[in-house]
Amino acid sequence: MKAKTSGRRGWAGINFFDNSVVVARQLIGKVLLLDGVGGVIVETEAYDQGEPAAHSFIGERAHNAALFGPPGRAYVYRSYGIHWCLNLVCREPGYGAGVLIRAIAPTLGVPIMERRRGRDNLRLLCSGPGRLGQALAVTPDLNGKSVAATPFKLANAEQNPKVVRGRRIGLTKAVDLPWRFGLKDSEFLSAPFR
DNA sequence: ATTAGGATCCTCT
DNA sequence: GAGGATCCTAATG
To answer: Can you give the pTM of this predicted structure?
Structure first.
């Protein structure tokens, strides 16, 4: 059988040409590392083209260009003028969909992450897109880099994680779309599901 | 436990 | 000049 995108080495069985909602669901329970530092993804959100909460809604600009690039790459944006947050691009080039990585359960490189954040609260170490960005040292120079190559690593972990689903957080538009996914009962979620 | 305000900066009105 | 896919601290109940 011929190798497809979903089976390509380094993608942990995920096909980033799929819908961002599908990918967001599938990313729960995978291991994400940046320079060997990170852990298990426990919270994601999907954003899609033509939906007003998405950064691609306004069309392609210099700051969101990576979101319109090839799938399986990183899109980094600045949040509230302060934080750098990490997305993984979905769909075909030019489309404009992505998955925001909102929280991970820290497993590898915990001391490094604590140092970068200047805090040692394990529960809050990577809980929320801003904290996660700081802990993994997410910066805009990662824009357009493939998750299947260094400095990234995406790998399988749990076989059948229990996934919960709900509304996205911190939005003022498209508030009702149930496009937030989480690992059930994880203590590292940025906020509970209900 | 919950709330309020500040930090900070790029884009758009 | 406003406001955002946020986080932290400090002040309350």
So the answer is: 0.94
Instruction: Give the domain ranges of chain A.
Output: 14-183
Rounded to a whole number of angstroms, the CA Rg of chain A reads 15
Å between CA of A143 and C1' of B13: 28
CATH superfamily of A14-183: Methylpurine-DNA glycosylase (MPG) (3.10.300.10)
Is any atom of strand C within 7 angstroms of residue A67's beta carbon? Answer: yes
Question: CA-to-CA distance for A43 and A25, rounded, in angstroms?
Answer: 9
How far is it, in rounded angstroms, from Cα A5 to Cα A18?
10
Q: Name the nt closest to A67 by C-alpha to C1'.
A: C5
* pLDDT exceeds cutoff 90 at A26: yes
pLDDT tens-digit readout, A38-97? 999 999 999 999 999 999 999 999 999 999 999 999 999 999 999 999 999 999 999 999
A140-175 tens-digit pLDDT: 999 999 999 999 999 999 889 999 999 999 998 898
- Residue A192 Cβ under 7 A from any strand B atom: no
Query: From CA A111, how far away is CA A149, in angstroms rounded?
Result: 24
Please state whether strand C lies within 7 Å of residue A129 at its CB atom. yes
CB of A78 nearer than 7 A to strand B: yes
